[in-house]
Design brief:
globular; 323 residues; 11-stranded mixed sheet
Length: 323
């Protein structure tokens, strides 16, 4: 079922966020020496924020209370992989913190950014593996295991992170189709084909064992995908698992919405709205560095309005109000 939802509806659907702030803690997962993970854990707290997380000269950070007191009782867990191949650390802080303030534990999974196109080839199967490792760590940790509800684990992500979330939720990737995806006539318009070609990398060189090992994590009970990459090459998530797809801007695979329990289009948005709001100097910095000032959108205020809509849709889904 597909919906076009307005801000007014989203604000009515979303739980009140004013009573709590976002606590934040860090964990490191180093079992794979070549790919250490940094986990930013968000959770509800009554402590006052004393730090900004995820900010830089271009993008605004999010206020948080580092290592603040944790509220009593286990909370549902959301494991987040936010962004494409070269996404910055904690790029989903704006979303993770808003979900946490509503009563969830949210883990944003940060892996080392691939330095070359050849290294990046394996992100397609390493990202879901990263999310699985994050769940393993939290459920094995003496402190965090008691804080999360193991029966309510959601995989969530944006762009390639959304593809990873769908993968561990049980959506199957058409591997032969994926390996051919940069050979099509319009391949240079794909999410990363142009970059791969410029770096002399070919999808056919992707690690075959890694691709073969992709599969469902039975601990995941629901999935949220914002603008997943390669949507036409992904099967539907399992029927026994609740699923939400959010489209920012026009969808490349609108017919694929039927694969999901719920599909929502955010009117007036674009894929860039999954990024944080920009600082006042952000657009000028991007122009000076030969970047794309369109990343900042019309204004910080406009982006924050769309962020409220996205958060409202997600919180409605997570709390079951969308059913």
């Amino acid at each position: 079922m597909k919906f076009r939802l307005t801000l007014a509806l989203m604000l009515l659907a979303a739980p009140c966020l004013a009573e709590t702030t976002a606590g934040v803690a860090l964990l490191h997962e180093t079992s794979a020496q070549a790919r250490p993970l940094s986990l930013t854990i968000w959770y509800p707290t009554e402590a006052q924020p004393s730090a900004d997380i995820g900010g830089n000269p271009v993008f605004q950070g999010v206020p948080a209370a580092p290592d603040a007191a944790f509220p009593a009782g286990p909370h549902p867990l959301v494991v987040m992989s936010h962004g494409g191949l070269r996404s910055a650390r904690d790029s989903g802080a704006w979303l993770s913190s808003s979900i946490a303030r509503a009563g969830f534990v949210v883990v944003e999974v940060n892996a080392p950014r691939p330095e070359t196109a050849a290294i990046a080839l394996n992100e397609i199967w390493q990202r879901p593996q990263d999310m699985r490792r994050a769940i393993d760590l939290l459920l094995a940790d003496g402190t965090w295991r008691a804080r999360v509800d193991e029966s309510r684990i959601t995989a969530a992500g944006f762009a390639l992170g959304a593809t990873a979330a769908l993968s561990i939720a049980g959506a199957e990737l058409d591997v032969p189709g994926y390996l051919r995806s940069c050979m099509a006539e319009d391949a240079t318009e794909g999410p990363d084909c142009r970059w791969y070609a410029g770096g002399g990398a070919a999808l056919s060189d992707t690690n075959a064992e890694g691709l073969a090992a992709m599969g469902r994590d039975p601990r995941v009970t629901s999935v949220i995908a914002l603008n997943p990459e390669y949507p036409a090459l992904l099967s539907a998530p399992p029927a026994d698992l609740r699923s939400l797809r959010i489209s920012l801007g026009s969808s490349d695979d609108a017919s694929g919405d039927q694969k999901f329990t719920q599909a929502v289009e955010i009117p007036g948005s674009s894929a860039f709205d999954a990024f944080a709001a920009c600082t006042r100097a952000g657009p000028d910095i991007l122009i000076e560095e030969d970047g794309d000032a369109a990343l900042c959108g019309f204004s910080a205020e406009a982006r924050q309005t769309i962020h409220q809509e996205i958060s409202g849709v997600i919180l409605s889904f997570l709390t079951g109000d969308s059913e």
